[in-house]
Amino acid sequence: MLFKMENIINITVEDRNGTTQTIEVPTDINLSLMEILKASEYNILATCVGMALCATCHVQILNGMDSLSEATEQELDMLDTLPDADAESRLACQLHLTNENEGLTLKIRGTLQ
Ligand code: FES
Predict the structure, then answer these.
(1) Per-chain mean pLDDT for the chain
(2) Where are the alpha helices (DSSP H) in the chain?
(3) pLDDT given at position 20
(4) Where are the beta strands (DSSP E) in 1-113?
(5) What are the residues facing 21 on neighbouring strands?
(6) Candidate from 34, 59, 108, 111 with most ligand 1 atoms within 8 A of CB, to mutate
(7) In this structure, is residue 3 part of a structural domain?
(8) Ligand 1 within 6 A of 54 CB?
(9) Which structural domain range is residue 98 located in?
(10) What is the CATH number of the domain that holds 30?
(11) Which residue in 1, 7, 73, 104 has the most C-beta neighbors within 10 A?
(12) Is the shortest distance between the CB of 91 and ligand 1 below 6 Å?
């Protein structure tokens, strides 16, 4: 008998080199998307440690934007400071994924300095 994994979703991540891979993300642990990406060995500075103050966790949502929680004023203000941010931009540290986010696809855009 096959057991369905209730609290694991698959998301697709494109790195700065254009390499894409699908990773499994548990949704029943209290980690932000930034922390999950770092745990998956993506190079994200996260200088402000998730306070929406550095924007080095900038990601572009390629699929699934509607399934994410709305950005706060603080997140939008920070994104406004980025020259390359657009309507698909989010800060990964402000996102906590749920089972609704199955199939989310994103590209890592944060700078390394
Ligand atoms: S880690 Fe600094 S804004 Fe997300």
Answers:
(1) 95
(2) 33-39, 73-80
(3) 98
(4) 8-14, 20-26, 58-63, 89-91, 105-108
(5) 13
(6) 34
(7) no
(8) yes
(9) 9-103
(10) 3.10.20.30
(11) 104
(12) yes
